[in-house]
Amino acid sequence: MQGHTIYFDNRPKIIATATVAGPKETEGIVGKYVDLPLNNDMFNEETYEKAERKMLAYAIEKSIQNANLAKEKVDLLISGDLLNQIISASFAARQFGIPFLGVYSACSTMSEAFALSASMVNAGYADTVVAATGSHFSSAERQYRYPLELGCTRPPQSQWTVTGAGSAVISNKGEGVSITAATFGKVVDFGVTDVNNMGAAMAPAAADSLLTHFKDTGLAPEDYDLILTGDLGALGSRILKDLMWEKGVDISANHVDCGEVIYKVIEDEFQGGSGAGCSAVVFNSYIYDKMMRRGEIKKVLFAATGALLSTTSSQQGDSIPCISHAVVLER
Amino acid sequence: MQGHTIYFDNRPKIIATATVAGPKETEGIVGKYVDLPLNNDMFNEETYEKAERKMLAYAIEKSIQNANLAKEKVDLLISGDLLNQIISASFAARQFGIPFLGVYSACSTMSEAFALSASMVNAGYADTVVAATGSHFSSAERQYRYPLELGCTRPPQSQWTVTGAGSAVISNKGEGVSITAATFGKVVDFGVTDVNNMGAAMAPAAADSLLTHFKDTGLAPEDYDLILTGDLGALGSRILKDLMWEKGVDISANHVDCGEVIYKVIEDEFQGGSGAGCSAVVFNSYIYDKMMRRGEIKKVLFAATGALLSTTSSQQGDSIPCISHAVVLER
């Protein structure tokens, strides 16, 4: 490890991805690229939690299919989600019989899973690993905030949890987007206590990981075609750019936040999208297609961002610790 | 990966450990070996959750001290716990400034963290990794079952969540117990729905991982001085031995379960101890000392066991999916 960054010299590759997303999500830029756009966010299930689980299982299964693999060829599934005890991931894993590593990193789960998957494949421990995560607006609302039935007003700084899931197959064989490095984030807490203002809470963690990455690697923002954060939303993205600017690093030319761009009419969703599914859907559909099929961008620094609070920690007066793991993706 | 097992040829070592445990726990076999036996399970904090977090942070810090390292020398902290959104781990990580990987594997967190730590050190990604977890009886009761104030009767098949935390420093330098292989578990669910009978739910997952391990490695139970499961308790351990016996594998001569042995008077705690802290405390105090200082045992197969349910999954009628990750420890 040089600083907080590790390098994957064997260039493990994302050889296939799959995504599923709800009706509101597929109205936006990802709509053309998701494998399964849902008409109904219940996905023929009885509860939101079961719908979330089904989306995640769908994405995992479809990504393995898209890689033309039998599921017996997958050595490891690395997954987590936002629900208590990551039940979406654990229950989805139950149906595959693949060795399972549960991870929790809130909305930075996608990049933590990419970093770990690449670590396992690059070292030769595994030939093929699946990394997946997802979220559901309605299960997240009732777990983290209020039951939807209460009809609570959402404040203007809030974000909308993405209903969707994304999965990627990382392998030592085949064609795809290589994962060439990972910078592990540390927990950063600037003292934000407003649970409706996740963007402000997470921006310092994203800034910390991006600055660490540039310092460790000697690279600069212009070395990347795209610097992709997870779900800071409009406000959080502005704070991130300001924090970076203060340290003399200007990312404004090539920064895009998945949360800021996922919804068509941003005004309705206030600051944009959030949730583990946000960057999972945007990266594994729109961005992966842009790198692979369309060949429009070559090198991406992907830093999903997570807020590590729980309702208990907030109720006991704690502020919101956040984290961001960054991975380098190259075509 | 051969089958579900990976090998660590560079023999990353557990060079130091540290543990802390509550008054009930330190009355038993671990009492002489924990770094900090608590007189009061509140640990001078206002809430059970904050006491749990403080124990975990104590164990992490003390293990780094016991390894004679500065915390800046630790490349990565891998931790998780039983509370929603693993807040004990995330908030403990906040105070160290070490890159943090959050994991969730219920009560098999200790062996998942060992497997991942060894993976990172063996591959040369990191020189030194800290793996840690813990639990607290009172925070677990009110999150998973009932508030203590209700005074609910505990059924005879129940287990007692261990109040305690354990941490280990895994390094490519120094003397210690080597982690030489890991068998990643898959999610196994035999349809148990009784949330008070975790031992019965988890035993099939432990059996699956142990059988997979013996098959992958060609080893047999007698190749180990000790086969150490996490927190099956008395009933779960009996079920495990039966399930193994049915497959022609007899582990009765050298199997010990951390949950079965942690408490002095097992009748009071019914089936014994459970919780992520159970195997974390027993391994990192009593067993580590037995391997290192006393030199009484050389080769241990450590398979912590986890039940991946949440209150939501149980309330929605789901059975209890379980998992067990196994690691080989050699002196």
UniProtKB/TrEMBL annotation, chains A, B:
GO molecular function per UniProt: acyltransferase activity
Gene: spoVAD
Pfam families listed in its UniProt record: SpoVAD
Domain of life: Bacteria
Protein name listed in UniProt: Stage V sporulation protein AD
